[in-house]
Amino acid sequence: DLRSPNMTIAPEYGIERFYLPEGQGVAIQNDMRVRPFGIKLALSANGTAQIKALMDGSKTLFEEPLY
Questions:
Q1: pLDDT at 16 over 80
Q2: What are phi and psi of 39, to 5 degrees?
Q3: Predicted confidence (pLDDT) per residue in 28-39, tens digit
């Protein structure tokens, strides 16, 4: 029953991973443990989500190229 107060729901959106350039991921991963980061997200016409950029506050750290 989804109305149970002890029920945990873990939806998957297909945006659980973001790949960083080699050698740069560990430092960012460590920073993510001490402060929040954000993403820019794009949605296709059918609702498929894709992470387009990784943000540290208002600073864009990495941006996916257009395909």
A1: no
A2: -135, 160
A3: 888 888 888 898
User: What is the Cα–Cα distance from 52 to 49, expressed in whole angstroms?
Assistant: 9
Taking a C-beta distance cutoff of 8 angstroms, is the pair 39, 28 a contact?
no
**Per-residue pLDDT at 1 exceeds 70:** no
Query: Which segments of the chain does DSSP mark as H helices, in order?
Result: 25-32
Q: Which domain holds residue 29?
A: 11-67
On whether residue 66 sits in a domain, the answer given is yes
User: Is residue 39 in some structural domain?
Assistant: yes
For residues 47 and 25, what is the distance between their CA atoms, to the nearest angstrom? 28
Residue 4 falls inside a structural domain: no
Supply the pLDDT for residue 4.
Answer: 80
Specify if 25 maps to a domain: yes
